[in-house]
Specification:
Elements lengths: L1 H9 L11 H62 L14 H39 L5 H21 L19
């Protein structure tokens, strides 16, 4: 028994297993975790880039296939239009009456020429009236001159639209008034 008390006196610490410092273990495990996370991020970025490239390739091939389909559809429509009869109003078995068509065209053109001549004569009458009014007033106001220029420009534009170009009537040069003071 003496031995047991002497053993107890020798060591004041209980007899259990000792552990390594958790701080060192935690540091090692943290380094491993960080390294694993880093590699995981690198792998993920690589996969993201590959998927992005694949996505662009998929979009490009989709676009090209749609464009090819559209071109084929346009070519098919062009062939159908080329194969269609030129006169859609004509039913099967009918023949076009070219003399009747020519008469209609000539009648239409004669009406257009009559309307054009009436418009030209009306414009000539208006010009003559304006030139007579301008000749009566030697010194017109600036507003009247600007109105006259504006009306001439409007007439020229209307005539160009109608397909008729008539030379503009020269204006009387009234010169500029200078006041010397």
């Amino acid at each position: 028994m003496a031995n047991s008390t002497s053993d107890a006196c020798k060591s004041s610490f209980p007899k259990r297993q000792s552990k390594y410092a958790t701080l060192v273990k935690n540091r090692d495990t943290e380094n491993v975790k960080r390294r694993d996370q880093f590699f995981k991020k690198v792998r993920q970025k690589g996969e993201d880039r590959r998927w992005e490239v694949r996505g662009e390739q998929i979009l490009r091939t989709d676009f090209l296939s749609r464009q090819k389909q559209w071109q084929e559809e346009q070519a098919r429509r062009a062939r159908e239009l080329a194969a269609a009869p030129e006169d859609e109003d004509m039913e099967a078995g009918e023949t076009p009456d070219s003399s009747q068509d020519i008469d209609l065209v000539e009648h239409f053109l004669s009406q257009e020429n009559q309307e054009l001549e009436a418009t030209i004569s009306m414009l000539d009458n208006e010009r003559q009236n304006r030139s007579a009014q301008t000749a009566m007033t030697d010194y017109g106001s600036e507003d009247e001159e600007y109105d006259q220029y504006f009306m001439d420009i409007v007439q020229q534009v209307e005539q160009k639209v109608a397909g008729v170009v008539i030379a503009p009537e020269p204006h009387q040069d009234q010169g500029m008034d200078f006041v010397m003071g």
